[in-house]
Amino acid sequence: MLRGLVCGRLGPLWMWKALLLFVAIAFAGQLLGIIFSKSSVQPAARSIFSSPDAQGPSLGPCRPHTHIMFLKTHKTASSTVLNMLYRFGEERGLRFALPLGYQLGYPLPFSAHRVKGYRGPRVVEFHIMGNHMRFNKAEVEKVMPADTFYFSIIRDPVALAESSFAYYKEVAPAFRKAKGLGDFADDPGKYYDPRARNNHYARNLLWFDFGMDHNANFSAVLARHGEAVVRQTFKLVLVSEFFDQSMILLRHALCWPLDAVVSFSLNARQQKPDGGAGAALTDGWVGKVRGGRLPAKAPPNLFLTEEQREKLRQWNALDWHLYQAFNRTFWREVAAFGAARMEREVALLRSRREALAGACLRDGGKPVEAHRIRDKTIRPFQSGLVKILGYELQPGLDNGTRMSCLRMIRPEIQYKDTLDAKQFPRAQSPQALPGLQSPKLASDRSFFKLDPSRTGEKGRDPGGRTGEEGPRDWDGSRLLSRNRNDKTRS
């Protein structure tokens, strides 16, 4: 009778048996799932920057250098090197000898009071100095510790002249008067006035940046003396045409991990202003050609015959001597390092660069036009005549990886501002720091933050600034184009 009651009112018995079996299976599955999930929990994937490959080949018993002075010469891939110094120092909380604006008083000879936060010799410990300056050893030694490692970078004077002509044509009177670089090379004396401001860009620019008289008449004695002066201070001189080999020598000299000297090709440009078919990228290490601020003007004519190239070597004879001398030294150091060993380490460097590009950069690291970069804070500044390309980060990166990747592609101006804000928080104003110099070049920074054309944005400058203020260098500092006696020559 009970069976009939159940079957009649609550359904057949087989249905209840099936229901109980289903509940039992579900409970067992849930229990097993919890056990399985606990046993299968894996640690979070490590960042590519924490992999063993980040360290590179063994450096032997040495301690990393943290007191470093880099003479940032013009048009030599020095911005890429400065990015490495910025990254290394920021990651380790080191203190930078930053300029009040964006350059350390250039083109005037360097003076210690140009360093933001300088309060007198050895009062504040600075670890890294690397912004543009005209070298002045006595003043640098007031800022940097006695155990500082000094190094710099040079470039073939003909290639340097090509880049300098393209970039400074509107501000160097000697270049502005010439129709093209070949025209200038045929008769430099026709256009060059040693008394004219900014003409230092037109002759022996390396010699000038090293703090010597670039207008001196060439002699073998003078050239050897200048070479000796450079050798006495700078323990390593890199060669931009052999950038990867230079990075290996620098890594071993500084006792740094491999990732510290791995960089992406910064400041690549489109040769054709409108892009499209036929647009090409120059070598990012040495191809940082940027023109003036007036977009209506055509890019300068840089064509040179072999005869004109030789004339430029003669015109820049002091630079040519430096380049030849330190190029020979460079290859002696490579030979001492070991040719086969250098080849292996360069291969590792390039492989690591490719791996980081794949992890960090969208589309495998293909450079894009500035206005296409969604993150406006990493758009490279534009010259107006040519398009300077930048990068986009991969989406979905974890915070640590994203920060490391961002450091590798952050443009120089924005990076300097980032470091400046860390060392001098807004809450601690410059006036509140005793002995701190007033920021005379603060207008340079506001210029860049307001000028949309420099970051690939369209529209009028919200600050109301116009080109009537006069031409500016890449960092916003004014470049005086009027002719007058330059009393700052050494």
UniProtKB/TrEMBL annotation:
<dbReference type="GO" id="GO:0009247">
    <property type="term" value="P:glycolipid biosynthetic process"/>
</dbReference>
<keyword id="KW-0333">Golgi apparatus</keyword>
<keyword id="KW-0735">Signal-anchor</keyword>
<keyword id="KW-0472">Membrane</keyword>
<dbReference type="InterPro" id="IPR009729">
    <property type="entry name" value="Gal-3-0_sulfotransfrase"/>
</dbReference>
<protein>
    <submittedName>
        <fullName>Galactose-3-O-sulfotransferase 4</fullName>
    </submittedName>
</protein>
<comment type="similarity">
    <text>Belongs to the galactose-3-O-sulfotransferase family.</text>
</comment>
<dbReference type="InterPro" id="IPR027417">
    <property type="entry name" value="P-loop_NTPase"/>
</dbReference>
<keyword id="KW-0325">Glycoprotein</keyword>
<feature type="region of interest" description="Disordered">
    <location>
        <begin position="429"/>
        <end position="490"/>
    </location>
</feature>
<dbReference type="GO" id="GO:0000139">
    <property type="term" value="C:Golgi membrane"/>
</dbReference>
<keyword id="KW-1133">Transmembrane helix</keyword>
<dbReference type="GO" id="GO:0001733">
    <property type="term" value="F:galactosylceramide sulfotransferase activity"/>
</dbReference>
<feature type="compositionally biased region" description="Basic and acidic residues">
    <location>
        <begin position="442"/>
        <end position="476"/>
    </location>
</feature>
<keyword id="KW-0812">Transmembrane</keyword>
<keyword id="KW-0808">Transferase</keyword>
<dbReference type="Pfam" id="PF06990">
    <property type="entry name" value="Gal-3-0_sulfotr"/>
</dbReference>
